[in-house]
Amino acid sequence: MGKSFLLGMMSLLVLCGCSPSGADRQADRITVGFSQVGAESEWRTANTASVRAALEAPGFNLKFSDAQQKQENQIKALRSFIAQRVDVIAFSPVVESGWETVLREAKAARIPVVLTDRAVKVSDDSLYATFIGSDFVEEGRKAARWLLQDSEGKPGPMRVVELQGTVGSAPAIDRMKGFHEIIDADPRFRIVRSQSGDFTRAKGKEVMEAFLKAEDGKIDVLFAHNDDMAIGAIQAIEEAGLKPGQDIRIVSIDGVRGAFEAMKAGKLNATVECNPLFGPRLAELVRDVHAGKPVPKRVVVEEGVFVASQAAAELPKRKY
Ligand code: AHR
């Protein structure tokens, strides 16, 4: 075989975009390995649907993996994506820490990583290309600001309980931080109990039952880190013979349809929006990162706050 024949074949391979990593690249699709946290909440279901719709569109080849709320599953999924030599890895980290090693492995394999929804704590931020998601600290502050506004003219003391998200997760850490930043400065409020309900309805109900028992029902306010836990807690409050939304004022985070229904029924007082529908923007970022184009290191999702009086009008417009 002559040297010029070999050179000719090589340039042909370059021109047709063929690469040793297989059929996906030949078809000119971006292969994305996406590791999702799990299916713990209404928010997560909406987020999965949004990401799937955007990354199952033409131009992409999605490899989807559900971590069932376990970091070890997520690390396994990431390693499998690296072994399969996907073009881009995207994932929503269950917890904040413990990612350094696997992210270094992705970097060594030259696979760019896009963080979605939740942040990681790493010493080197070149381990990921960009992070798209909400400002969780601000969400905690918004919940606290609503409580201050709703408590205008109320003398206190007000006994507050807090249903936290998954231990070690960015939304649990940040929402707590934002909420406390504002509430702790007002002497009328006392946070009497704080415990994780793991972002699920079942756990939210279980922990709220324990709170009610321990506090002998003397709770004025519930701050839940997500709507699902608030909805679970509402059941516990009703079963204890109290009126959610009246005897115990409730503010939670996400803005899912279930929360709007609860607000419409007068059982939830306010919800801070956390928008899960960022699939289309994620797809753009993946495309740019894959093309080597510059992308912002942080893309923040815009969101609002809704109170019970808006629920009936807003409910038909909700997209998740
Ligand atoms: O990371 C986002 C949070 O995770 C949402 O608030 C919650 O509902 C979900 O489980």
Tags for this model:
binds alpha-L-arabinofuranose; 320 residues; Peripla_BP_I; disordered N terminus; SBP_2_dom; alpha/beta; 6-stranded mixed sheet; Rossmann fold; carbohydrate binding; signal; 12 helices; 2 domains
- Domain module count: 2
Q: Tell me the series of helices and strands, N- to C-terminal.
A: HHEHEHEHEEHEHEHEHEHEHEEH
Radius of gyration: 23 Å
Helix content: 40-55%
Shape type:
elongated
- CATH homologous superfamily of the largest domain - what is it? Response regulator
What is the CATH class of the largest domain?
Alpha Beta
Explain this structure to me?
The chain has 320 residues and is an alpha/beta fold. Helices cover 42% and strands 19% of the residues. The protein is built from 12 helices and 12 strands. Strand 9, helix 10 and strand 10 form a beta-alpha-beta unit. It starts with a helix and ends in a 6-residue tail after the last helix. The N terminus is likely disordered. The structure holds alpha-L-arabinofuranose (AHR). The site of alpha-L-arabinofuranose has 13 residues, from helix 3 and strand 9. Keywords: Signal.
Topology at a glance:
Layout: H1 3-15, H2 23-26, E1 30-36, H3 42-55, E2 60-66, H4 71-83, E3 88-91, H5 100-108, E4 113-116, E5 130-133, H6 136-150, E6 158-164, H7 170-183, E7 189-196, H8 201-214, E8 221-224, H9 227-239, E9 249-254, H10 257-264, E10 270-273, H11 279-291, E11 298-300, E12 305-307, H12 311-314
Parallel strand pairs: 1-2, 1-3, 3-4, 4-5, 5-11, 6-7, 6-8, 8-9, 9-10
Antiparallel strand pairs: 10-12
Helix pairs in contact: 3-11, 6-7, 8-9
